Amino acid sequence: MQTTMMGVKNDNMHAAVEPQRLRDKKVKELVSEKRRLVEVPYTATLAHTMNALVANQVVAMPVAAPPGHWIGAGGSMILESDKHTGSVRKHYIGMITMLDILAHIAGDNPDDSGDHSNMEQRMAVPVSSVIGHCLESLSLWTLNPSTSIMDCMEVFSKGIHRALVPLDSSMENVSGVELVESASSYRMLTQMDLMRFLKGHESDLKHVLDRTLNDLGALVEPIFGVTDHTKVIDAIKSMRAGSLNAVPIVESFNAATEDHSQLVNGKGRKLIGTFSATDLRGCPVSHLQSWLTASVMEYTRSLLSVSANMAGSSPRELVTSCAESPLAEVVDKVVVNHVHRVWVVDSDGRLEGLVSLTDIIRVIRTSLLE
Question: What is the pLDDT of residues 245-274, one digit of tens each?
């Protein structure tokens, strides 16, 4: 039997070549220990939403609204209903990410006037008005609890970062991605959850984990980044335009003549840092206005250091690897450091490419099917 849903193909012919232990695993086993879903109502302000992201240490969360008043993200209908009566309680209308919030803040190029009331006004708008600033917030995906790990890997290998998993799906006979789903509660499954699971099954994956990034074709290039002279506001706008949650910070060739407001091809340039939407969660809202016109290096060196010292930890270090590194080393680095990408550099620290969670999942799945 072969089915296709929203571009996700399930082919049972592949089952015979999968390692037995992986083949027997289902998505429900990955979410069984996960905490209750963190969400915000559609009426929540951006300030409240940002606080919720920080307090729960998540990078995205679904937005819930009353049923019948919204068209779901991507045309999906993901509903929460009463387990006993079946009556619909809420409708998930989209996903809000830190990049959505930052894109809204940076949208009209504020000057460095230090007008905090202006920032307060921006952060007072309802979260429902911001959904769609970035493409990812317009996509809501669900994975049936009975979906196999291999089919889950196929979904995440296409660049889908997270999916809702209903705990009591009404569609037990279907696996893969759903257009319509109703359940009494959901859990969030992310690419990082899948990576932790795969790391826990290293013995099943030794044949692929021992191979190098080059050999597996895991490197992605060209790799676009920002220079050390790029302003925070320009970096945010560039990331929004490119649907990028993080970019490498590279040395500029010529500080005086180079255009620092646009993304640059970072290949061959010295890697000196990472600018991530996630890292801006640690910046107090009252300080965001003044930091928008600072350079990305000023921000990462100053504010992140302050935030890290307050938390009793050191600032996040650059996570890098080389093209001849075994995949096992990269998997270990992303899981231990909780990063969603590893920059690939040469012996002089110059960028050669990157490997994201999407790329890792893709090459592991491909290897399992060969």
Answer: 899 999 998 888 888 989 999 999 999 999
pLDDT in tens, 271-302: 999 998 887 776 776 677 778 888 999 888 87
Rounded Cα distance between 112 and 298, Å, is 15
Spatial separation of the C-alpha atoms in residues 217 and 224, rounded to whole Å: 19
In degrees, to the nearest 5, what angle opens at C-alpha 226 toward C-alphas 221 and 232?
145
Beta bridge partners of 351: 345
pLDDT digits (tens, 9 = 90+) for 318-368: 899 999 999 999 999 999 999 999 999 999 999 999 999 999 999 999 998
Q: Which of 157-161, 207-211, 252-256 has the lowest mean pLDDT?
A: 252-256
